[in-house]
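pinging the channel bc i need a second pair of eyes. not urgent but kinda urgent?? the chain im working w is below, pasted from the shared doc
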Amino acid sequence: MDYASRERNPARHLPSITMVVVLHLLMGYALVTGLARKAIDVLKQPIETKIIEEIKKPPPDTPPPPPPKLALPPPPFIPAPEINIQAPVQAAPTITTAPAVKPPPVPVAPPAPVQPYIRKDFKPSTRIEPQFPRQALQQGLSGRVKAWMHVAPTGAVTEVEIKESSNSLFNREVIRALSQWKFAADPVGFIVEQEILFNLKD
């Protein structure tokens, strides 16, 4: 028996046809009894879903951040005071001519006086011996006096100057006696240095 003849045999297709008929009957029964609606309602129920969060690892121990630095507030603005400065009025320069002033004359120093020549123990032409003072005799004092006699060109003594004295009691008598001395005339004049001794006699 060939393949075509075998396929035309109705008995071979009977199980397939039977299954199709049974399915149609079941579907009709379901439609009639409402089983299909219940199945749809079951499918319509909400599906519960749960979101599982991922477990985060705890952060490592880190030191807390430093506190923020507080900036100092800016200083208050103080406006500068207005100062009105008036520029000085400059007067026009005036040129005045001063009369020429002659410089004062330079004082001429007087010539230095000529130091007279000093003669020691120069013999006079006239000599007056001094007297021993009475007060020195009463007190029993001896003394020595050195004097300068300023002699004029005429030979007269113009001044007696005491240079050294052991006791002032003898000065007055020396000046009185030496003022009367006379010397030879000299064209310039001079100074005679004389020493007078006062000694007590036994």
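so Residues 118-198 form a domain with the TolA/TonB C-terminal domain fold (CATH 3.30.2420.10). and The first helix runs from residue 3 to 8. — does that match what u expected or am i reading it wrong
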